[in-house]
Amino acid sequence: MTEPRSNGQLSAAAGSDKKVTVVDQTDGEVALPELSGYVKICKPRYLGIRVFKRVYVVLKKTILQVYKVGG
Predict the structure, then answer these.
(1) Three-class secondary structure of residue 65 per DSSP
(2) Which helix (H) or strand (E) covers residue 9, if one does?
(3) What is the gyration radius of the CA atoms in the chain, in angstroms?
(4) Domain assignment of residue 40, yes or no
(5) Cα–Cα distance between 48 and 61 in angstroms, integer?
(6) I need a surface site. Which of 14, 24, 29, 58 has the fewest CB within 10 A?
(7) Which of 44, 41, 35, 40 is nearest to 65 (CA)?
(8) CB 58 within 8 A of CB 35
(9) Numbers of helices and strands, H then E, in the chain
(10) Does residue 1 fall inside a structural domain?
(11) How wide is the angle at C-alpha 36 spanned by C-alphas 33 and 42, nearest 5°?
């Protein structure tokens, strides 16, 4: 059985192989990632027939934008 390590040893071991990049930001502003991609939405219909609709979704800060895809 191994000996438990102290918190100082755990944080030193965990931080030795990782790099953190700081993004420039103004005071009070939190850096949020922008996510985007295609999503299939299922619309169940009568008698178990399912219709899948493909949309393009963009998430910026707290705004979710959904765009129709032609075709």
Answers:
(1) strand
(2) helix 7-15
(3) 23
(4) yes
(5) 37
(6) 24
(7) 35
(8) yes
(9) 1, 3
(10) no
(11) 130
For residue 19, give the amino acid letter: K
Residue pLDDT, tens place only, 27-47: 666 677 788 999 998 888 888
Edge-first strand listing for the sheet containing 63-68 = 35-44, 50-60, 63-68
With respect to residue 18, please indicate whether it lies within any of the assigned structural domains: yes
Nearest alpha-carbon partner for 60 in 32, 26, 25:
32
Q: Give the model's confidence band at 64: pLDDT under 50 very low, under 70 low, under 90 confident, else very high.
A: very high
> Of 33, 53, 36, 35, which is closest to residue 44 (Cα–Cα)?
53
Find where tokens 């790099």 sit.
Answer: 19
What pTM does this model have?
A: 0.49
Domain tally for the chain?
1
**Total count of residues recorded for the chain:** 71
